[in-house]
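Lab notebook, bench 4. Still working through the backlog of constructs that have no structural model yet. Next entry is a single chain of 303 residues. Request: give me the structure tokens for it.
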Amino acid sequence: MSSDAMHTSEQPSALRDLVRLARPRDWLKNVFVLMPLPFAVASGADLSVGSLLLGIAGMCLVSSSVYALNDVLDAERDRLSARNSRRPVASGRLSARTALAAAFIWLAAGMMLGQLSAHPGAPVILAAYAAMNLVYSFGLKHVPLVDAFILSTFYVLRVVLGCVLVGVAPSNWLLLCSSALALLIALGKRRGELVNAPSAAQRPALAGYNRVYLDQAMAIIAGVTLFSYALYSIETPLLVKGREFASLPFVVFGVLEYLRLAQVRGEGESPVELLLRSPGLVVAGVGWVLASLWSVGLSRLLG
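Model written out:
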């Protein structure tokens, strides 16, 4: 094979590895940005679709920059895992320098998109997300329980970004519900890692957990999630009378299905893959969206 042909074949491979480094599948986590949308619009928020999309795109790029940095920092530990050893940096297909350059470019581009969203708070939230990830990556991810709380904060920041992008302040109820759900996902992730990769050499924080503790903690947080959402449904003035509990069954089913998959089948290590593999969670999510739109009065949203 000629040198030109070899160079041409290497370019698509490098591009594929850069895409893998960005983890576009994990952008699905940014669905949390849309969580406040039905209730914000029902409260009279002025929605700009363009600004919303720019903010979401900014979060996608900033999160990709964080994933790239984590892959560089975790390369040695990832090589101990049959699954993570295939990542571009851990496998040696991409150099650490290339990954860090990509992380910087994605971070700068994401912050620029946040600025272009025309909401001053958007770049602040994106910067806070990046800064917290730095603190997490350089030490706190190795501290049991603290790591789970910080992981949950990343999801809550997405919810707050959604509020910023539609120009409303996040309510205490929204923060409580989203925080509890995010912590449940974070604990489920740690449980999945404990079951599927129980070596503390791969993730030192796992030495501070066991299945019994995580199962009990998840049960407590699941109860908090359901109870807080039920109280929100009762107390919020945004819902049409008689439709207050329309979305609650989907929340209950989704939480219980997540617990079943995490505790019975040992899944949860990757929340995105769990969602994509679980028709029950997908149906619960779609059902929640439709029921929420109906409970706030779909005609008001369309009008």
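Notes after review: Confidence is low (pLDDT under 50) at residues 1-9. The longest helix spans residues 49-73. Flag for follow-up if needed.
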